[in-house]
Design brief:
mainly beta; five-stranded mixed beta barrel; elongated; homopentamer
């Protein structure tokens, strides 16, 4: 999975019928210092994530193994909201609660 | 999914029989500022998209989960036309209507 | 799919039995100006393409959805020969006929 | 597979139900000199690997072919702990035992 | 497929049970001039390839379509040993026999 921050939304009226009602979010990918890497992906939300939250994105066929995405033409899904994340003993992110 | 702009077409007479009648479009990939990234992909159109439109492209096995692409040797599909798209509070694209 | 030009061949005697008799071609990937990008892929030919031809290559599991590649350990297939290809109103390639 | 070093953990309360109880580890990818490449991936642990260990990560649909990941929305799995690793006659890594 | 040269081995005692007895080889990826590109992949050997040999590597789900890899968590397989390889009329590699 990749770690990203939810940065925006995509609105689409004309889309595959099976994607009706799915929330399409723009996720900016974070590097191992929790900085934006410059890349992004549009993913279907499967966990009720909101703008600004740090999340995990699964890609490829694995992106279809949630209730929100099963058998749908989506190649990326948000399948976890990150509470905290550490690398080499340093906390890179902690969700405000 | 990636966001792209439909920039051209590919014409092919000699192709896998199962792709007969499918529209093959050249989609230039857009970065998170809605500028061309330099990359492109050739995708089958599943939603009746036209030249210049901004669209979502799904890749890999998920590209086969539309009526237009099921069980066909296509690794990319246009599965949504983008009406609008925003990142970090700024509108990156809005379709003229 | 990616657009490429068939630039060479790979000869292999010792290979998975299911690939016996399959033609393995070296395809140089073209960028959106129809110039070589520096990348290449080795793909199984499913459409009788020849050296110098411009073709479409499908990758991943979709590369197995042709008669030539079904259930075989191939991750790339040539599934269309390009007659012509245009981007932003300019013809990037036209096959001599 | 890619070779990486386990560098951290991701904690997530709100995640796909099928991932409940799975350990999510941050793996820094190593290059062919066993140095960090700058890339990382978050992977589910299938072999009881610990912080600092060098491991193999399988991606894509193959990441679901372990007991820990079957039918789950995970696109990366740690499926082996590396005891030793050599390239061109030089030992790049040997686990302390 | 990618073309690579077998450069080393990975030894792993603690691994997914289904990979028991599989040979894990480090393959350095070659560019279109048959020079090392800097990249590598760890692949399961399905054809009895040896150190120094030039081989084809298939990735993704296609990497599971050999006897050695079926239903196993491997995302890369060596499925052919290259006898010779030419690009643009020049022989890039020929196996000593």
């Amino acid at each position: 999975m990749q770690i990203g921050r939810i940065a925006g939304t995509v609105v689409s009226t004309a889309k595959e019928a099976s994607l009706e009602g799915r929330k399409l979010l723009v996720v900016k990918i974070l590097d191992s210092d929790a900085k934006e890497s410059g890349g992004y992906v549009v993913a279907v939300d499967a966990v009720g994530a909101g703008l600004g939250e740090v999340v995990l994105v699964a890609s490829g066929s694995s992106a279809r193994l949630t209730e929100a995405t099963r058998d749908r033409p989506s190649d990326a899904v948000i399948m976890a909201i990150v509470d905290s994340w550490d690398i080499d003993g340093a906390v890179k992110w902690r969700k405000n609660t």
